[in-house]
Amino acid sequence: MTYAMRYRGKNNQELVQYLRRSRVIKSDNVFDVMSSVDRGKYTHPNHAYIDAPQGIGYGVTISAPHMHAYALELLEEKLRNGTRALDVGSGSGYLTACMALMMGSNGIAVGIDHIPELRAMAEENILHDHAELLSDGRVELVVGDGRLGYPSRGPYNAIHVGAAAKEMPQPLIDQLAPGGRLIVPMGPENSDQTLVQIDKTLDGKIKQRPLISVVFVPLTDKDRQYRRS
User: Fold this and answer.
1) Top-level EC class, please (predicted)?
2) Residue 110 three-state SS
């Protein structure tokens, strides 16, 4: 979001309560899931409960909590029991875990990152927070180029992209299920970016809606990502 939020909570529950009071979190489902996924297990605990993005290495950040809440609110109606979601640039695994919990016992959330060390970090974090998501197969973490999606698990009812794309990511649109929704930041690095909602209608038509101004790291290739670290 365009306004600077720098709230600092003492723990995860204080942070989530703040996001609800601020009307960033509106639904009980998002509130319950963000309450149950402790952000302190996915980033440095000294800074986990500040409403600001945090670096997690390899030129990557974990988004500010209000951005995660906003994304989950936008995708909530698609994250139902038995659906499938793709988290592109899954990083520390936080949002992947949230999406999986929202989809219930029969859903699958795929987190994709092209940095193997981040994939390993995400697995470790989820093991320490919600190990059942991995043991039950509700979360699958893969190494790959998220710009190309992960077609073997698609089509997806919800896709979230955690980095800014310079152009419309057609492979991800292709992997959206009819009725699915894609949330992606669009725009060049270090310049104006817009969070965009892309919906695929039941008859396959694409509808695009700009939402808010944002700032994200670029959606790029693995070699450039390593150079940013």
Assistant:
1) transferase
2) strand
Contact (Cβ atoms closer than 8 angstroms) between residue 118 and residue 90: yes
Q: Beta 176-186 vs 193-200: how paired, if at all? A: antiparallel
Question: Cα separation of 80 and 168, whole Å?
Answer: 26
Catalytic residue of the set 22, 27, 63, 90: 63
For residue 63, indicate whether it is catalytic.
yes
In 3D, which of 198, 140, 202, 152 has the Cα closest to residue 177? 202
| Residue 200: strand pairing partners | 206
Give the residue carrying structure tokens 């592109």. 88
Phi then psi for residue 163, to 5 deg, are -150, 160
158 touches 102 (CB < 8 A): no
pTM, two decimals, is 0.91
Surface-to-core class of residue 32, CB atoms within 10 Å of its CB (0-12 exposed, 13-18 middle, 19+ buried): middle
Would you say 44 and 79 are in contact if contact means Cβ atoms under 8 Å apart? no
**DSSP bridge pairs for 139:** 109
Tens of pLDDT, residue by residue over 91-101, are 999 999 999 99
What whole-number distance in Å separates Cα of residue 75 and Cα of residue 69?
10
The model's pLDDT over 40-63, given as tens digits with 9 standing for 90+, comes to 999 998 899 999 999 998 888 899
Helices then strands, each counted (H, E), the chain? 7, 9
